[in-house]
Amino acid sequence: MRSDAIRWLMLLREEPEDEALAAEFEAWRKADPAHAAAWDSANETFAAIGDTPPAYSHYWRESAAPPIAVSRPGAGRRWTRALRRRPVAWVAGLAAACIALMAAPDIDLRLRADHLTGAGRIDSVALADGSRVALGPDSAIQVAYSGNARAVRLLAGQAWFEVAPDARRPFTVRARDITTTVLGTGFDVRMIGGRTSVSVGHGRVEVRDDGVVPARARTLDAGQWVRIGEDKAIVSGAGRVDLAGGWRKGEVQVIDRTIAEVIDEIRPWYSGKIVLANRALGKQRVTGVYKIGDPGAALQALVTPHGGSVRRVTPWLLIVSGA
């Protein structure tokens, strides 16, 4: 949520006269109380910084953009006033807001998680039954075993599971509304952006979506995958078995995906914030293999062929812009 709020700060600043963008922002903010809370937190942090750059801001690249005069219905709102900043102070303020929001620990996640990782880090987790988990960057899981069930909840990010067979106790992984059930197999469950996906390396799983009525279920065999969007639209397919869970090798293969979706794949590998400041660029579709172990280089390889650029504003903030 916090990263979405920062993204909106950037988009509203980059396209101040876009009424459709303003309407889309208002719809996002009103859609969920958590969205409004995230926006308030980002906006208050940004406003509190005011026109005073943080310490050492003279080492950051200054923005050449002119001051903003936002003109929209309801322009007196606090969020439009927050965008009216001098160029240097605006960039410094945005960077400091990103840093402040990054530094704020997600207390709820930490309290709920049994295992979690930081940006760019993969951990190997051994579960009590002999199953193993490769826990991806910026990811967290909660484990609940009982006498007749083995349940894991993916709280954030992505994880690869190698499940020890036990016919008496089915192994389930819950990610948002999606439950994956297996007896013994190797598979991947991911929550990237607003999408939830499952892919199978070997064995067989059942994927069930309880977020719709009636619930939908399908079986996946080795090499097959399914991706469920925020709107519950389903995309599925099959590929080479060795490509399942490719993020464990520090790479992501994409086929006909948007640049915005690929940036979502790269974000967990960067220890700061990545802001996509151009919606048109984000809608461009790409196919390729990207080495996500170096997020900056991956972003350059992703957007440069489409006229995009990547600017490092501070050590903790990368801004992806169009031509």
Strand portion, in percent? Answer: 25-35%
Percentage of residues in helical conformation? 25-40%
Largest sheet: 13 strands, mixed
* Shape, principal axes of CA atoms: globular
Oligomeric description of these chains:
single chain
- Continuous helix count: 9
Number of E-state strands: 18
CATH topology of the largest domain: Jelly Rolls
- Give the rounded overall mean pLDDT: 81
Number of spatially distinct domains: 3
- Alpha-carbon Rg, integer: 21 Å
**Distance from first to last alpha carbon:** 27 Å
Structural class designation = alpha+beta
Low-confidence stretches: 48-88
Task: Give me the CATH architecture of the largest domain, please.
Answer: Sandwich
CATH classification, class level of the largest domain: Mainly Beta
Give me the strand/helix succession: HHHHHHEEEEEEEEEEEEEEHEHEHEE
Structure characterization notes:
This protein has nine helices and 18 strands. The chain is of the alpha+beta class and 323 residues long. The chain has three domains: 1-104, no CATH class; 108-242, Jelly Rolls; 250-323, Phage tail protein beta-alpha-beta fold (3-Layer(bab) Sandwich). Strands 1, 2, 3, 4, 5, 6, 7, 8, 9, 10, 11, 12 and 13 form a 13-stranded mixed β-sheet that branches. Strands 15-18-17 form a three-stranded mixed β-sheet, sandwiched between helices. The longest helix is centred in the first third of the chain and has 17 residues, at 33-49.
List keywords for this structure.
Phage tail protein beta-alpha-beta fold; 18 strands; 3 domains; 3-stranded mixed β-sheet; single chain; alpha+beta; 323 residues; Jelly Rolls
